[in-house]
Fold this protein.
Amino acid sequence: MSTNRILIVDDEANIRRVLLANLKAAGYETVAASSGYEALQKISEEKFDLVLLDKNMLGMGGIETLKQIKAKDADIIVIIMTAYQSVESAIAAMKEGAYDYITKPFDMDALKNSVKNALERKQLVEENRALKAQLGQQTKTNLIAKSRAMLQILELIERVADSMSNVLIYGETGTGKEVIARAIHDKSIRRDRPFVKVNCATLPENLLESELFGHVKGAFTDAIKDRVGRLEIAEGGTLFFDEIGELSRATQVKLLRLAQERKYEQLGSSETKKADVRIISATNKDLQKAIADGEFREDLYYRLNVISIKVPPLRERKEEIPALTYHFLERHAETKEKSFAQISPEALQLLMDYSWPGNVRELENVIERAIAIGQGDALLPQHLPKELRQELPSEFPKVGATIKEMEKQLILRTLEQTSGNQTKAAQILGITRQTLINKLKEYQYIENGSL
């Protein structure tokens, strides 16, 4: 049931009484005012979504009241009611911001329908505004490129930005795939339209399709009203699918049609809609393996992978660490109102030596934490987490030790640094988790219960 609040403004008590009763029965919260002055007072004190306003009232007339309502709150929807039908009156009301214009005696069903349409339009505007603020407010590219690989990616972005071709971005978690997707959008002719993100990994399967395509009232049990999907909100802009490899096979079929024909239907509707969006996808999965395992459609893969961008992990482009560090110092200084003016050589060396299994995202978290806890003008080693400051143990094999002994000590020390987290240790060592497990079995650490 709707919780929208409606203010009814009419100098005839009988009209107010009838409208209050009918709209309350329809599920709206209703309040009445007998004059324009009373209406303005109520609007100053309370929040309303819609105003039903009589045009021909004694004292302050409807058009003057409409002007002052819009001056107080431009987002309030106003529907004008009048017993005198004329084109001139309708035009005057619309010019001052009225949503609709209905005549008395009015058909109650027609009035309810006008109210319903007006409130749905208001909801659409508000949802669009919120998603734009949340997902599309970045106005400049935050892509740091110093390494040869990242400079090549920048060149590719410049070449393909204005193309309609779909883009698939590969890379480990935290490498900056979304930053690259936004850079493509910001460089394109679609830059003034929304950039809308769909996280395929965090949205539950039963909500993903509704979030993407939208639904009509009655499409499922909780669908009490129509809802536009992110696809419609992204119209004219870019739709970014993060973690595309997590999509179910059923949703992949619908996305395939969208990628091929740029057409779709809302849940519960048979009406086919056209979509004007650029599709960019990102994944940290091996989609070729997912295809071989029957988890991902091959035809969808080729539709999405028209232009392929592979983002290298941070450990393979360490020359970017200084620039990224200063970038994050500047970014978080704005929110925390403090930062470091410089980085000590010792701290920078620790940042350069670390393997960054969490990539750029982990580096940003480390810098944000350092700003929060640190004091002084320089970023020092003591501001960094202990895993970055950890030195090799004194018992580390010296010259003369076998490679096998050194390997064992390195693996066990890495596990100690990661508190026994085998996945993280394997990432740091540059081996698979299964290889690490096999090594531990070889050292009899798993069998003996040492981990």
User: Anything to note?
Assistant: Confidence is low (pLDDT under 50) at residues 131-140, 391-396, 445-451. The domain at 394-451 is CATH 1.10.10.60 (Arc Repressor Mutant, subunit A). The longest strand covers residues 77-82. The two ends are 55 Å apart (CA to CA).
